[in-house]
Amino acid sequence: MPDLKRDTRHSQCRSKQVLKQIQPTRWLFPLENVNFIGLNANRFKSLLQNLGLTAVSFLVVLLLAEWLLGMFLPFPNDYFTYTPNSGFEWELDPVSFPGLEAKSAVKFNAIGARSTPVPPTSTTKIVAIGGSTTACFAASQSLTWTQILQDKLGPDYWVGNFGRLGNRSHHHIQQVRWILDKKELQNTSTALVFVGVNDFLGYIGDSAGYLTQSDFEIKLAAFAHTPDSDLPWHRRRAFFKILKKSKQQFFQLFNTDDFAASLEAARVYRQQQPKSDVPPNLAAGLEKYEDNLFRIIVAARERGVAPVFITQPTLWHPQMSEQTENMLLLGLGKEGQCYSTQLLADGMEQFNRSTLKVCREQGVRCFDLATKIPKTAAAFYDDCHFTNYGGQLVAEEIYLFLRGAEK
Q1: Which residue of 137, 169, 213, 224 has the lowest C-beta tally within 10 Å?
Q2: What is the largest distance, in Å, between two alpha-carbon atoms of the chain?
Q3: Residue 220: C-alpha distances to residues 73, 215, 216, 223 (Å)
Q4: SS3 helix, strand, coil % of the chain, rounded to 5?
Q5: What angle do helix axes 197-205 and 283-302 make, rounded to 10 degrees?
């Protein structure tokens, strides 16, 4: 017969041993029982106090540094397509890219435009908005089509170049809204909107991204700087802005020498890929594009500015020679496939037709530049970007259009 008393005493003894073993692990309640990694309670308290003091000191130093950086290294707190009063140089190989200089100097004025300083209010102001075919980074300042246009119009005119690389009609909505609100541009008469090719290429490259990009993503891409009020907390901090600026300067310093090499690599990739003649369905992209153009028109009219749209000329056409086709580097699908020049020419024509259609429906002037610029290597150094001669042709054609419209 089992000895119940003996078993009970044995169980109680075992329980006390277990409780005794786990007692040191109850370091939170009470703190006096601490024995953590060989530390007694007093040493552990001292360690916690030192850690707390270090954390508070670090936070104070961080806040002080943030305040000092904000005081002595102020960052632009407004909408700028590029950093005001900044610049850089691009280097290109004139042998691989004929029609261009070996080096182009790019400079931005006090409001982030690639133009001369903003003149007195009595001067007629024209703002040019677009992508890289407006920015013209491969051309020196005096050889951009916007500067040549300004020179042709005469001393009573100023043309502000707010072109930003890769921007589409999504971004131009934001730029018309915020750039034209600047006090320096309050009496702007005309906004030239050079648009279409980035929308077409953006849609065939990533249709979902083109259709669903958020407003915040659009603003970040449309401007190099935006007001702090538009940014999340971490992006407002001076430390974040310094890191961002350092990153940009690093890439400008080391990537300008490799710019020509990257373009040449893109050319070689396209040459090596089979060409697709299967056209993507452009319907949804064209619908979004036309809606964006309408919103640009509304934004410009609300600010008392007359919008003038310009269709996009390109080098693409069905009967390109092998030598000319080897100049191309754009026109890739989402899966990396390369579209044929026939398909690219047809797609660009559809986007240009949409530009003309919206302008006709809204009673807005539109200059069909795409029909004026010859599809030759003399005018383009790749798919859609202008040589120095091409820039002169663009400026001349737009000048004649504007002068004709004034009569």
Answers
A1: 213
A2: 123
A3: 21, 9, 6, 6
A4: 55, 10, 35
A5: 140
Strand ranges inside 151-203, DSSP E: 157-161, 188-194
Q: Are 100 and 136 in contact (CB under 8 A)?
A: no
- Whether the CB-CB separation of 227 and 77 falls below 8 Å is answered with yes
Q: Distance between CA 288 and CA 194 in Å, rounded?
A: 17
Q: Tell me, what amino acid is at 83?
A: T
CATH class, 75-226+256-406 region: alpha beta
Beta bridge pairs of residue 80: 225
Strand partners, 161: 128
Contacts for 225 with CB less than 8 Å, ≥ 6 apart: 75, 76, 77, 78, 79, 80, 83, 112
Q: Which two tokens stand for residue 134?
A: 């407006």
pTM for this predicted structure? 0.79
The low-confidence residues of the chain, meaning pLDDT below 70, are 1-40, 44, 58-76, 230-259, 405-407
What's the rounded Cα separation, in Å, for the pair 130 and 168? 7
Q: Which of 116, 224, 235, 103 is nearest to 166 (CA)?
A: 224
Of 293, 314, 275, whose CA–CA distance to 360 is shortest?
Answer: 293
The CA distance from 223 to 225, in Å, is 5
Q: What angle do CA 173, 163, 79 make, to 5 degrees?
A: 60
The number of residues making up the chain comes to: 407
For 125, phi then psi, to 5°, come to -105, 135
- What's the sign of the alpha-carbon dihedral 211, 212, 217, 218? positive
Report the relative pairing of strands 157-161 and 275-276 from DSSP bridges: unpaired
- Sketch the domain layout of the chain as residue ranges: 17-68, 75-226+256-406
Please identify which residue in the block is written with the tokens 């073993």.
Answer: 21
Task: Write out pLDDT tens, residues 140-166.
Answer: 999 999 999 999 999 999 999 999 999
Element holding 296 (H helix, E strand): helix 283-302
What pLDDT is recorded for position 289? 98
